[in-house]
Design brief:
With about 250 residues, this protein is mainly alpha-helical. It is built from 13 helices and no strands. The longest helix is centred in the N-terminal third of the chain and has 40 residues.
Amino acid sequence: MIKDRTTKIKNIGFYEGMRDGVPIALGYFAVAFSLGITARKAGLNALQGFISSILNHASAGEYAEFTVIQAGAPYIEMALIILVTNARYMLMSCALSQRFDKKTGMLHRILVGFGITDEIFGASIARKGAVDPWYHYGAMLLAIPAWACGTAIGIIAGNILPVSVVSALSVALYGMFLAIIIPPAKTNKVVAGLIVVSFVCSFLASHISLLAQVSQSMRTIILTVVISAAGAWLFPVKMEEVSHES
């Protein structure tokens, strides 16, 4: 009787995760399609792009990855830039770990950690009570394959479509990044200021002789760490503000 009830609870959580994963999957497919155009420029084929997206579920992280591949940078730079651009997921994992039931096994924790994305994290953390791994699996089941398939199809389309169309589609990825940074910049002056500072520093770094000799990916790593660390030190977020936003 208890086993049947547990199975029913798992099924409910899983189906609810799939339901909430549908809009996430649709959004991921559209973004990943544009990302596939970038992957194609980096020389990846559809299978390589699919595997990359199955293992790396972040638009910024994958864009950085493909940029480093295209630049022919060494593996250590690729590892560092992906670590920096995806560092926020470690914080999300820490937040979710506080919401797990104490009886949740290590395997569930690892699998949930593997499938954390901004949107899945937001949907999962917004639910009341302890984190339900099965809800997370339901959302992952649709969202992650859609992300990987979108990248692969974007690469295939990039090989078929005319050069002019591919160039136009490449602009869509920059539109995605603007959609990420503009909303928080409109509501937070500190974020807006840091975005402007990052633009200026990126431009200057490419013209300063000492930094210009460093590869583009390494400059991105240095600027990301320095600017984010300076922002956290000069403008720390108070716990009251975090509680109010959540």
